[in-house]
Write a structure and sequence with these properties.
This protein has about 425 residues and is an alpha/beta fold. The chain contains 14 helices and 15 strands. The chain has helices at about 10-25, 35-40, 100-105, 130-135, 140-155, 185-200, 200-210, 225-235, 260-270, 285-300, 315-325, 370-375, 380-400, 425-435; strands at about 1-5, 30, 45-50, 60, 80, 85, 170-175, 235-240, 270-275, 305, 330, 350-355, 360-365, 370, 400-410. The strands form four sheets. A five-stranded parallel β-sheet has the order 9-8-7-15-14. A four-stranded parallel β-sheet has the order 2-1-3-4. The chain has a four-stranded mixed β-sheet with strand order 10-11-13-12. Helix 1 (about 10-25) links the parallel strand 1 and strand 2. Helix 1 (about 10-25) packs across helix 3 and helix 3 (about 100-105) packs antiparallel against helix 5 (about 140-155). The longest helix is centred in the last third of the chain and has 17 residues, at about 380-400. The chain is elongated. About 40% of the residues are buried.
């Protein structure tokens, strides 16, 4: 155990110290506000306050963890052995910045509460983030800082022993369109034919016809392949099903279709299943509740996991709604336009509510990449994508974190915009499982 002296034990202090020590470093900690208790303790310890008590291991504290609400903060990014950091300290401090305040700033998504530019889907833009502006978005800096901090602490306490967490991988599959052509309504099918005809897409017209008359299988029906690969590589897999009503942005098969229901029930037998709340649920709790209950009726079990469609979430409103509906795990923390670590960490963490200054029961699982980001935004080839995946995996593996990827059933189809991508998913699984 490590004993920490601080002049004020706030909810923010407890929250971020627990994330860094308990979740990342797997080290138990205790706090004291009594100087005599701190001085008398013979085990590993350090002080986190404004001025050092004596010659102890000392980290000079920034005011952030002792404040409430959102303040206008000045962020100056410097380097700690080539790793970007901010909230600099003075020479008295054992490390050159307040690792705890900086980590809290990133993980609580402080910058997303401040005024910012939104994209055309009302999302916080990656380019607005401090991580993007200072070129550390593709590094899980909180985890890197934590291990570097531990190294410094062990110089002071060389006999300190502790356990180390293990690297993990989670594959998540978003099912925006379970089928390309099958099981759509008559109106949508005719509309699809007419649209293809107007654009002279003769090959697509033939594909649509061949699938509807069972001459060919539906290209997006890649679920058996995904389950087969799950078994081969023994990976944890979660499917997020979009079952909202049809809109411009929500174009899946109707949840009333028997074949779609059977597919969802099938997946429950082999993997975990979560909700993919539709485009307009971001600020609409009633719509979110309706879709959650719809999926629960199909699989006959409570839904505890979700990822917002289009990654549309607004802090803290969307997360409040998820908590109210007893969703305990959210997988939306990442960007559609950029790969990397939106919250600065590759460790799951509990959402800290800056409105109420409490740690909530909602556990956030940050992902590192999406197939559509690699293909549609970054315009990478399959080979280049695998290189980027390997780089991100290595970053996570170096700190024994949790590497989470987002793929779609469509990207295994080798069809249309996914031409040449069929083997990317299986090749990725080889990479993430390799030493």
């Amino acid at each position: 155990m490590i004993l920490i002296y601080t002049h004020k034990i706030t909810p923010r202090v407890r929250y971020i110290f627990k994330h860094i020590f308990t979740r990342i470093l797997q080290i138990p900690i205790n706090f004291t506000g009594k100087v005599e208790e701190f001085v008398a303790y013979n085990g590993p310890k350090f002080s986190y306050t404004n001025v050092a008590l004596g010659k102890e291991f000392f980290v000079k504290s920034n005011e952030l963890l002792f404040q409430q609400g959102i303040k206008d903060l000045e962020i100056n990014v410097k380097a700690w052995d080539a790793i970007p950091c901010f909230f600099s300290t003075d020479e008295q401090s054992a490390i050159p910045f307040d690792i705890f305040a900086a980590s809290f700033y990133l993980i609580a998504r402080y910058e997303e509460y401040a005024p910012h530019v939104k994209d055309n889907h009302e999302r916080f833009c990656a380019t607005e983030s401090i991580a993007f502006k200072h070129n550390f978005l593709e590094k899980p800096v909180i985890d890197i800082w934590a291990y570097k901090f531990l190294k410094s602490l062990k110089v002071k306490f060389p006999d300190f022993e502790h356990s180390t967490r293990k690297y993990q991988y989670i594959s998540t599959i978003d099912v925006d369109n379970a089928f390309a052509y099958k099981y759509k309504s008559f109106a949508r099918t005719i509309g699809g034919f007419l649209k293809d005809l107007s654009q002279f897409k003769l090959i697509t017209i033939w594909d649509r016809f061949a699938v509807l008359f069972n001459i060919k299988s539906d290209p997006f029906n890649t679920f058996n392949s995904i389950i087969e690969l799950k078994k081969i590589y023994e990976i944890r897999t979660i499917f997020f099903f979009l079952i909202g009503d049809y809109t411009t942005f929500d174009t899946n098969v109707s949840a009333s279709k028997r074949k779609f229901k059977l597919l969802i029930k099938d997946m429950v037998d082999y993997a975990r299943v979560g909700l993919h709340p539709s485009y307009y649920t971001m600020k609409n709790e009633n719509l979110l509740k309706k879709e959650k209950e719809r999926l629960e009726d199909i699989i006959n079990m409570p839904i505890k996991r979700s990822r917002q469609h289009y990654l549309r979430f607004s802090l803290p409103e969307t997360y409040h709604n998820l908590i109210d509906l007893e969703i305990t795990e959210d997988y939306s923390m990442g960007y559609a336009s950029h790969v990397g670590f939106r919250a600065g960490t590759c460790a799951p963490f509990y959402f800290y509510d800056l409105d109420f200054e409490i740690q909530t029961p909602l556990k956030v699982f940050p992902f590192a990449l999406i197939d559509t980001t690699l293909n549609d935004y970054m315009k990478l080839t399959p080979k280049q994508s695998l290189g980027k995946i390997r780089d991100l995996k290595n970053e996570v593996k170096a700190v024994n974190g949790v590497f989470i990827t987002v793929f779609h059933n469509e990207s295994l189809s080798n069809y249309q915009r996914w031409k040449g991508w069929k083997r990317v998913y299986s090749s990725m699984l080889k990479i993430v499982r390799s030493n």
